[in-house]
Amino acid sequence: MATAYGTPTxxxxxxxxxxxxxxxxxxxxxxGFRGSEVLxxxxxxxxxxxxxxxxxxREHQH
Length: 62
What we know:
Layout: H1 2-5, E1 12-18, H2 22-30, E2 34-44, E3 47-57
C-alpha cells in the first residue's frame, strides 16, 4: 500500500474477495480494508458465491 499511496493521485484501493473466504476477509480488514458490497453472484456447482468489494482509503492508512 505504501507504494500505491506514494502516488499523490491515488486516494484509495479496492479489491474483490469471495464473501465466505473468512481468512482473506480478516486479513484485508486487519490492513484497514472495509466494505461488503456485493460485486457479483457466481454459480459454483450447486451454490451461489458472492464476490464482495472491499476498499481502503488513504485516510485509514496505517
